[in-house]
TrEMBL record, chain A:
It comes from the Bacteria. GO terms for cellular component: plasma membrane. Residues 91-283 form the ABC transmembrane type-1 domain. This is Oligopeptide transport system permease protein OppC. It is found in: Cell membrane. The lineage of its organism: Bacteria, Bacillati, Bacillota, Bacilli, Bacillales. The keyword Calcium does not apply. It comes from Oceanobacillus oncorhynchi. It is a multi-pass membrane protein.
TrEMBL record, chain B:
It is a multi-pass membrane protein. Residues 95-306 form the ABC transmembrane type-1 domain. Keywords: Cell membrane, Membrane, Transmembrane, Transmembrane helix, Transport. It comes from the Bacteria. It comes from Oceanobacillus oncorhynchi. The chain crosses the membrane at residues 9-30, 99-120, 132-155, 187-206, 241-267, 287-310. GO terms for cellular component: plasma membrane. Gene3D superfamilies: MetI-like (1.10.3720.10). This is Glutathione transport system permease protein GsiC. Belongs to the binding-protein-dependent transport system permease family. One of its GO terms (biological process) is transmembrane transport. It is found in: Cell membrane.
From TrEMBL, chain C:
This is Oligopeptide transport ATP-binding protein OppD. Belongs to the ABC transporter superfamily. It comes from Oceanobacillus oncorhynchi. GO terms for biological process: peptide transport. It is found in: Cell membrane. GO terms for cellular component: plasma membrane.
Automatic annotation (TrEMBL), chain D:
The lineage of its organism: Bacteria, Bacillati, Bacillota, Bacilli, Bacillales. SMART domains: AAA. Pfam families: ABC_tran, oligo_HPY. GO terms for molecular function: ATP binding; ATP hydrolysis activity. Keywords: ATP-binding, Nucleotide-binding, Transport. InterPro entries: AAA+_ATPase, ABC_transp_ATP-bind, ABC_transporter-like_ATP-bd, ABC_transporter-like_CS, Oligopep_ABC_C, P-loop_NTPase. Residues 4-253 form the ABC transporter domain. This is Oligopeptide transport ATP-binding protein OppF. Belongs to the ABC transporter superfamily.
């Protein structure tokens, strides 16, 4: 008996994620991107353990705007702060917040979308109106206002505020997919076989949209990193004194910095680009893999 | 068609109401009220209280809301504490600039996106298509503020082809030809920055739409009629794919607004986006509220317009 | 002069899958006379539609070898510009799915007029409209003036199929290819469309190739019938001979698997239709589905043999073919 | 008492319209249909697209809401979705048209066939596997395919896996909704033969929904013809084919292409005659809305929709 169940488990076919990952490895560009992402994540999280954030953000008026040197690998900013240290911690923060926002908005969006799509009718109608409304909001302004207004502001509140205006895309996508799937005969068949709505949603429909979810979440991660650095760039991102890639770029709004002190902003710009491109490469490769699987299945 | 428009309008109305409620709540959350910016700081507490009572600031929230909406409808957006004048006046000064910037951005978006999309779609998987797709790929991953900074750096500072800040050269006489040319000149670089990023979505849409339409059965019908490839593309594929694009600009408004905020900041371009950032920095909340509301209404109306245009170009929607 | 309209010789149409070409139509040779309906029957994957598309040269990515000559003009080698003059004029096609074969964003009238515009420049705008209304009348569409302005989604499937027929016959083509023209339609509508095609044949004297999977449709419509299996014609004969005296094992199996009067059990053909990639390329392609027929009875390179005037059968295995009894079939039949 | 008794079944779908998107009218998909099924027989339900034949089947099993009317199963009212007892749900199963979409592409054959077992019978993993293997044996799908995914099978095999799933709970009635119309002729034969075999073995009753009169004639003891949500004729297979009474039935029969080319002329003439009769005596068969009248018995087995006499 034991042995038999073990055998069944063993023969269990690979999960969506496994299949996608396997396809991903075949795609060279995506593979390089994935490795880059893993390395950079390990690097920034590892190094930042040894960096003292308080020290880095302390203003040192005797060392302002210094070009790269042995002491400061990437020079200093107008407050004499070490750019390299800010870059490391900033990247770590950007990745962390991007991930957090993606998870929060993803979970909410998926739940919203599946419920709306699966139940359809009036429920769907009502829920879609909510999405429509959120979609037309000038979300950047509203996030900025909330960021400014929130009394006890920290990284987590920031993530929640961002997520609150970023869940609609995935909700809409999942909803339309759920709407299609539940009309397919296999979902109808499940009803006639006595399965409950709950079980049909989770056991029948969801497995068919997991690859879509994985792909969308990955692409959302890139997008969220972009939005976060954008908000920080405008000065409404992380709480003050928390280094961010966007903040480094914001220094470039000073013409002097833009023209003559490349070390302050160019590395941050390049890093954001690389991060977003890599995440996107991985996401697109996953999408292609998912599409290919769709064709076969 | 009329039914469709009316029904679409009926959805728009609650949207605007919800928006106003949201903005009103935001305004209530903001510190200070209508009096904060106006009053002489030496005034006594009692006098302040009388003023508050007179302005209805002690009323329950729904009456305040009603008063606020009534004001809005009459064009009263409150007082700016920073400029000591009507918010309406403050905004209208900046409105022209932002509208000019948006129009420039939209025009360039279409000018660039449509040819690129058509080429990319028709000759898909050719080297030219790969180049275009490569660009959209990069464009999608590039945040607009990085892109705009680089553009400013190259064309503004290194090459010096365009002015690097402001909306008009100093000392120009309003009303003269030079004045308008200077305005246009100032809006070009920020406008193109927005356009070069916002083309990405349109190009991708067009390309996938064309590649998709290519494989439709009715294209085979057209070929079977003996239509040449050019005719098949011009009459059947492009027409069907480009028409919906005419409706896109409305939906683009939300992202356009986002774009202008960044670009106005980077180019020091005095439009509504920059005004928003300045006002929130200076805690001039009546302006912030008014701008949020205006941007929101613009987005809602944009979406409405797009839906209606799409309904007009696609008979399948129109009939329903 | 002969009555011959279309002549296909050793036609081979191949598609690329993973960098290799696979022939979906393999060595097809046939002729079509004026005023004749040739039925082509086969199951999905038999290559019958690929054959139709090859004649019109509508494949975008296929390698076509051999000869297709329409009125002594070789279509295979023809430059595109010349081809466009012939398509829609000398030869035309009726498609399977009336829901997707019309441009959804173009009014019906304009879609028919396009064909007139392309091949009959002398007709002015007025003339085109007049002719379009005439065509709509001809294919039995009520209130043609109204339909002229309507969009495809406003019409029923049967009406749309009539519009597609109107487009096809707009320039009185000599060759009309109907690719499963009634598969997507209800039976009563199917009957009407088939009767319409018969009627039009009398009027425009075209040669018609009717492609279908439905043996009944062929029995009702065709003058001659070609049966296709795995990209090849396995049997071709005048319609009465084919139904009265089917010879090839595939033809016989197919006929026996359709429910008819007084039949208790239907015949089941073993195995599955091979996919394009797995098509047997040598020997008798049907051999693996009739394993009880000894290998020695198949030809090494099966060819079409004329068994009576106009009746051709591929391979010699037909001489040795029999239906195993139901019991045996039960044991190893279904897999 | 009949095994399944359907009384005046109506299924209406709302048409949304107007400015407020309210329900302005209804599509009467099924508009007053009554019939009784006896155990062990095969009942054909024939009609063209939009006739309501599929909706009838789906309403009985509970995939559509019944607007009014009654469905009695062994005398018990199971009209309402909530009234559908566990027994009813086990006893009535469905076979779907499309063998590609009716099996969940992300599930293994084991999970697909075991789904009903998991819902109703608490079996151990081992028992469950044994049962699934037995079922696959019955439908002639090799039991080592238990861990394969649907896309690894051909259309006919998939359809048989779908049948295995439907008979897992030993049902009494199977609603087969166009079970062979997506299949090639030769594969169709395979599935039809097989349906007949398991019917004998398991004493099944079929409600066989199809647009193909030829197939229905081959399979069924009794046939009902549906048109625009109503029955136009109901009778034994012999009644329908040898003595069709309603003009719509005649049109359907005349429309079937005859497989013998010798009958071509005759069939064409027959069709012309029927078309003529249809034009001339339309009012005898359809009411002012173009719908069929109520059914009148003309023999013990044969009913036709004709206007009431007198």
């Amino acid at each position: 008996m034991e042995a038999n169940t073990a055998k069944i488990a063993e023969q269990k076919s690979p999960s969506s994620l496994n299949i996608l990952l396997r396809e991903l490895v075949r795609d060279k560009l995506a593979l390089v991107s994935l490795i880059f992402l893993i390395l950079i994540t390990a690097f920034v999280f590892g190094i930042s353990l040894f960096l003292n954030q308080a020290e880095i953000v302390t203003v040192d008026l005797f060392a302002i705007n210094e070009p790269p040197s042995d002491q400061f690998i990437l020079g200093t900013d107008y407050g004499g702060r070490d750019v390299f240290g800010q870059l490391i911690i900033g990247t770590r923060n950007s990745l962390a917040i991007g991930f957090l926002v993606t998870v929060i908005s993803g979970v909410f969006g998926i739940a919203f979308g599946v419920v709306s799509g699966y139940f359809g009718g009036h429920i769907d109608n009502f829920m879609m109106r909510i999405i429509d409304f959120f979609m037309v909001l000038p979300f950047l302004m509203i996030i900025i206002v909330f960021v400014t207004m929130t009394p006890s502001y920290d990284i987590f509140t920031f993530a929640v505020i961002m997520a609150a205006f970023n869940w609609m895309g995935i909700a809409r996508l999942i909803r339309s997919k759920a709407l299609q799937e539940k009309e397919l005969d296999y979902a109808q068949a499940s009803k006639t076989l006595g399965s409950s709505n709950f079980s049909i949603i989770f056991k029948q429909v969801l497995p068919n949209i997991t690859s879509l979810i994985i792909v969308t979440m990955t692409l959302n991660l890139a997008q969220n990193i972009g939005i976060e650095s954008g908000l920080s760039f405008l000065g409404f991102g992380f709480p003050e004194d928390t280094p961010s890639l966007g903040t480094l770029l914001a220094y470039a709004t000073n013409p002097q910095t833009l023209e003559f002190r490349w070390w302050i902003w160019v590395p941050a710009a390049v890093l954001i680009l690389l991060l977003m491109l890599s995440v996107r490469n991985v996401g697109e490769a996953l999408r292609r893999a998912a599409d290919a699987r769709q064709r076969r299945g | 068609m009329w039914k469709f428009i009316v029904r679409r309008l009926l959805i728009t109305f609650p949207q605007i109401v919800f928006l106003s409620v949201l903005v009103f709540i935001m305004a209530q959350l903001m510190p200070g009220d209508a009096l904060t910016g106006l009053i002489d700081p030496t005034i006594t507490q009692e006098a302040l209280e009388i003023q508050r009572e007179r302005l209805g600031l002690n009323n329950p929230w729904y009456i305040q809301y009603a008063d606020w909406v009534t004001g809005l409808v009459q064009g009263d957006l409150g007082q700016s504490y920073r400029f000591k004048t009507d918010v309406t006046a403050v905004i209208s000064e900046r409105l022209n600039n932002t509208v000019l910037l948006s129009v420039v951005a939209l025009v360039f978006t279409y000018l660039i996106a449509i040819p690129l999309g058509l080429i990319s779609g028709r000759y898909n998987d050719s080297p030219l298509d790969s180049a275009i797709t490569g660009y959209t790929y990069l464009g999608f991953a590039t945040p607009i503020f990085i892109f705009a900074l680089v553009i400013l750096w190259i064309f503004g500072y290194q090459l010096g082809w365009f002015p690097t800040s402001g909306s008009v050269a100093p000392g120009m006489q309003p009303g003269t030809m030079e004045y308008y040319l200077s305005k246009l000149n100032h809006s070009l670089l920020p406008g193109i920055s927005i356009a070069l990023i916002s083309v990405v979505g349109t190009v991708q849409y067009l390309r996938s739409e064309i590649v998709d339409t290519k494989q439709k059965d009715f294209i085979i019908t057209a070929r079977a009629k003996g239509a040449s490839e050019n005719r098949v593309y011009n009459r059947h594929i492009f027409r069907n794919s480009v028409l919906p694009i005419a409706a896109f600009f409305g939906w683009e408004i939300t992202s356009l607004i986002t774009g202008t905020v960044f670009v106005e900041r980077i180019f020091g371009y005095p439009g509504m986006g920059l005004l928003f950032l300045e006002s929130i920095g200076q805690r001039d909340f009546s302006v912030v509220t008014a701008l949020t509301l205006l941007f929101g209404i613009a987005s809602i109306l944009g979406a409405l317009l797009s839906d209606i245009i799409l309904g007009m170009v696609d008979p399948r929607i129109r009939i329903k | 002069m002969s009555n011959e309209l279309l002549k296909i010789k050793n036609l081979k149409t191949s598609f690329r899958i993973d960098d290799e070409y696979y022939a979906a139509v393999d060595d097809v040779t046939l002729t079509l006379n004026k005023n004749e309906i040739l039925g082509i029957v086969g199951e999905s994957g038999s290559g019958k539609s690929a054959l139709a598309f090859s004649i019109m040269r509508l494949h975008t990515r296929a390698k076509i070898e051999g000869e297709i000559s329409l009125n002594n003009q070789n279509i295979v080698k023809m430059p595109k510009s010349k081809l466009n003059k012939i398509r829609g004029d000398e030869m035309a096609m009726i498609f399977q799915d009336p829901l997707t074969a019309l441009n959804p964003l173009m009014p019906i009238g304009r879609q028919i007029e396009e064909n007139l515009f392309l091949h009959n420049k002398k007709l002015g705008q007025q003339g085109r409209k007049k002719r379009t209304i005439e065509l709509l009348n001809l294919v039995g569409i009520p209130r043609p003036e109204r339909v002229y302005e309507q969009f495809p989604h406003e019409l029923s499937g049967g009406m749309r199929q009539r519009v597609i027929i109107a487009i096809a016959i707009a320039n009185d083509p000599e060759l009309l290819i109907a690719d499963e023209p009634t598969t997507a339609l209800d039976v009563t509508i199917q009957a009407q469309i088939l009767d319409l095609i018969q009627e039009l044949k009398q009027k425009i004297h075209a040669g018609i190739i009717l492609i279908t999977h439905d043996l009944g449709v062929v029995a009702e419509m065709a003058d001659r019938v070609a049966v296709m299996y795995a990209g090849q014609i396995v049997e071709i004969a005048p319609v009465d001979k084919l139904f009265a005296n089917p010879l090839h094992p595939y033809t016989r199996s197919l006929l026996n698997s359709v429910p008819t009067e007084g039949q208790d059990r239907l015949h089941v053909i073993q195995g599955v239709v091979p996919t394009l990639k797995n098509l047997p390329r040598t020997g008798c392609r049907f051999a693996e589905r009739i394993p009880w027929v000894d290998a020695s009875h198949h030809e090494e390179n099966p060819d079409l043999h004329e068994v009576e005037p106009g009746h051709f059968v591929r391979c010699t295995c037909y001489k040795h073919f029999y239906f195993p009894d139901n019991k045996e079939e039960q044991e190893n039949g279904v897999s | 008492m009949a095994f399944l008794d359907v009384k005046d079944l109506q299924v209406y779908f709302p048409i949304k319209g107007g400015i407020l998107n309210r329900t302005v009218d209804h599509i009467r998909a099924v508009d007053g249909v009554s019939f009784e099924l006896e155990q062990g027989k095969t009942y054909g339900l024939v009609g063209e697209s939009g006739s309501g034949k599929s909706t009838t089947g789906r309403a009985i099993i509970g995939l559509e809401d019944v607007t009014s009317g009654q469905v009695l199963f062994n005398g018990k009212d199971v009209t309402d979705k909530k009234a559908k007892t566990k027994d009813f749900r086990k006893d009535v199963q469905m076979i779907f048209q499309d063998p590609y979409s009716s099996l969940n592409p992300r599930k293994r054959v084991l999970d697909i066939v075991a789904e009903p077992l998991r819902n109703y019978e608490k079996l151990s993993k081992l028992e469950e596997r044994k049962r699934v293997q037995e079922l696959l044996d019955i439908v002639n799908v090799s039991s080592d395919s238990i861990f394969k995914y649907p896309h690894e099978f051909s259309g006919g095999q998939r359809q048989r896996i779908g049948i295995a799933r439907a008979i897992a709970l030993k049902p009494k009635l199977i609603i087969a909704d166009e079970p062979v119309s997506a299949l090639d002729v030769s594969v169709q034969a395979q599935v039809l033969n097989f349906l007949q075999e398991i019917q004998k073995e398991l004493n099944l009753t079929y409600l066989f929904i199809s647009h193909d009169l030829g197939v229905v004639k081959h399979m069924c003891d009794n046939i009902s013809i549906m048109y625009k949500g109503r029955y136009v004729e109901q009778g034994s297979t012999k009644d329908i084919f040898e003595n069709p009474q309603h003009i719509y039935t005649k049109r359907l029969i005349a429309a079937i292409p005859d497989i013998d080319p010798k009958n071509r002329e005759r069939q064409f003439k027959f069709r012309q005659e029927i078309a003529k009769e249809y034009r001339e005596s339309y009012d005898r068969y359809f009411d002012g809305n173009g719908l069929a009248f109520g059914l009148q018995s003309i023999s013990s087995t044969h009913k036709v929709a004709l206007p009431e006499k007198g």
